[in-house]
What we know:
- This protein is mainly β.
- The chain contains no helices and 15 strands.
- The strands form five sheets. Strands 2, 4, 6, 7 and 8 form a five-stranded antiparallel beta sheet that branches.
- A hairpin with a 4-residue loop joins β6 and β7 (70-72).
Amino acid sequence: PVNFTVTVRDAEGHPVKDAAVTYKVDQEEGVTFTGSGDRSDKEGIVKGAIASTRVGEKMMTVTIAGSENTISLAPEKVTFVPGAPEALKFVSQPTLTRAGIKISPAVTVEVLDHYGNRATNGIFSAYVELVRSSGGVVQNGGSAAHMIDAVQGLITFDNLIINKPQTGYAL
């Protein structure tokens, strides 16, 4: 969450007590607020927080309703970035292929955070792991443990080769 403070003052700069402060964003999916609808204290202060399960920029507007009028402040930009990587998901599945020939198109997986956002904030590496096989080996550039770095949350294995004919392999 991103914490923030709203200070409500009158035209002369004095704190305004009991003003209702509410928040709104342009893209509400996955967004939660704390403090929205709270009233300012004797110092004119309301504390709040915004959190989002969706990455990207959000434009947040604060509205203050006092005893005499309602004011909406200019929108403020809040940017949410992906969380730590927690899962992998195939973008392109392995296709049928012949032994000794690279799998084409390349197998691609995306690195996802806890909420399913592509984890683009960091450097990640992965390698091919043979989960089930009937005797063959899947190689990546000649080695089953050759590391591939993620680029913008995508890992592309463009050099996968099955070294002998088989059925039922799984990555």
